[in-house]
Amino acid sequence: xxxxxxxxxxxxxxxxxxxxxxxxxxPGPFAAMLLADLGADVVRVDxxxxxxxGVDPAHDVTNRNKRSVIVxxxxxxxxxxxxxxxxxxxxxxxxxxxxxxxRLGVGPEDCxxxxxxxxxxxxxxxxxxxxxxxxxxxxxxxxxxxxxLGMIGQPDRPPAVPANLxxxxxxxxxxxxxxxxxxxxxxxxxxxxxxxxAAIVDGxxxxxxxxxxxxxxxxxxxxxxxxLLDGGCPYYGTYxxxxxGHMAVGALxxxxxxxxxxxxxxxxxxxxxxxxxxxxxxxxxxxxxxxSRTRDAWTAVFEGSDACVAPVLSLREAPRHPHLxxxxxxxxxxxxxxxxxxxxxxxxxxxxxxxxxxxxxxxxGVARDWDVPRLICDPAADDA
Length: 384
Prior knowledge:
The protein has helices spanning 27-37, 78-88, 100-104, 108-114, 139-145, 165-190, 200-207, 209-216, 254-264, 279-290, 295-301, 322-327, 363-369; strands at 18-22, 41-46, 66-70, 91-94, 119-124, 194-199, 236-240, 246-250, 309-311, 330-333, 336-339. It is an alpha/beta fold.
């Protein structure tokens, strides 16, 4: 008998769930990686010649914990092989422009004819319908029209681009995963699959829900660096240090703010917290103090405090941060340092089980395990 917190056999809470991923780039592969991290058996259907993004497949972490087969969907037999997988899958993920999967013969109707319980997840930037549905785009354009990009950066400079984290992954991948798991629950209860239309514009707009509430209540100005959480507040932002590093400050609450200023040596400015007319002075003096010491020196000053101050680390530095190292937030597998699976589960722990799947390397195993023998008949496939 197992109890709460007792690990069970397997590799995560989605052990036993089968996912077919039609290869793409960006949010689709990341969503499939998250499902694979959670234990799902994810089979990536790669195209001959690869995705063409210029990343060595052996280093593409988004393909960890997966298996790969190669299918030429433009060949006479290609669609039938994908439909064989769809028939045996619980979830299928694709990231084509609207209508492309249908033209290839692997759209929702084709797949549901073979497997009515299938959850068909569609990942796009603009969504399956709307004036821009057929338009090309990338993360920066999607977050631009939602208002999210316009909130980020300084008022006298163009908006700052937050890599492709806000659109592709937060507004895209994570919403697709929530959607397909919710639909999977529905399919298991009712026996009916469905289509999940995950659009980056929808997810990114949804992320701004709290801000829209604040805007309606008069607690948010519709411009950059003029608000509590967008860099407009001097005790919520970043400051340069003497060695060119930076410290991040998030001392919003009164007691955290007071501890922050005391450790900084600026206790005389405590009354300025609620007086926006003094925020300019507050920012200048905080900036001058931070410029007087190195990042490491300031990190030591705030060590063990509730001042809500942290050093701004680079990607290579982050895995060595004492807290992240102690938690195992990053891990090394097959020579690659990478983020460990998240979140964590007490009874069904997750892990990085396999290195990034090389195109076609899982063909024989998938053909056997999923009972799709004609996968190994595809001349494009690697029988490794």
